[in-house]
Amino acid sequence: MANGLDDVVAAETVLSDVDGLGGRLTIRGHSLPELAGRLNYAQVMRLLLDGFFDDLPDEAQLTRALGQARAEVFERLLPSLPLLASLDVYSAMRAGMALLPDGETLTDALLLIAAPAALQAQQGRR
Question: Could you tell me the residue ranges of all domains in the chain?
Answer without folding.
Answer: 48-123
